[in-house]
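haha ok so turns out i had the wrong file open the whole time. this is the CORRECT one, sorry everyone. sequence first:
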Amino acid sequence: MTNTVLEIKNLKAEVEGKEILKGIDLIINSGEIHALMGPNGAGKSTLGEVLIGHPNYKVTGGKIMVNGKDITNAPPEDRAKAGLFLAFQNPITVSGVKISSFLRMAYKNLYPEENMSLKDFFNMVKAVMKDVDIDESFISRSINDGFSGGERKRFEVLQMVILKPKIVILDEIDSGLDVDALKLVSAEIKKMYNQNVGFLIITHYQRILKDIIPEFVHVLKDGKIVMNGDRTVSDRIENEGYDWIKE
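then structure:
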């Protein structure tokens, strides 16, 4: 599999006139696991949503590039086609849009050259649903309609596996999951990592990082990355919090 590189250069962004990201520099290659940690309000979720092209955020400086191609102002669908995927911290309900229709449409848009039959596609979906402990009956339900917090997170992981991105951004994927569900989610992340997918795991605590070991740990404070290191950084954060990290 070819290498995919997500490069973030001096990225600045604001929402409603307030600057949130104040110059982010980060490079993520496929086959790497990066953890982005930081206190509440540091800008972690904002970074994920800016990378995927959320319309509420305005990029005021810097660039987002995939394999050297500038996608800073590209629409979300073009970012998805470039290989990016974001699992949202708070997935929304989309009433009236069935999971079956949504997944099929998203897959066909990303892989128009694949001539997979409807039967084969849904056999694939059902196999992944079993892996992430989502009942098959959910396939005919509207997106996240009446889902618990844990079910919403598992549906994000279902999308991740089905859509086969190259670079995955997971925003607080462990929140709302019990111990057993977290094990299932971690297993799917490991499978994709073994297939040379790159990960940016955005988290406030170290819970998921005990099972998914990051090679790189970055600490975000007040819209800037103020420290880069390895898992020893996340270990110290778990024991001491963030006060020892100076901007």
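The mean pLDDT is 93.
again sry for the mixup
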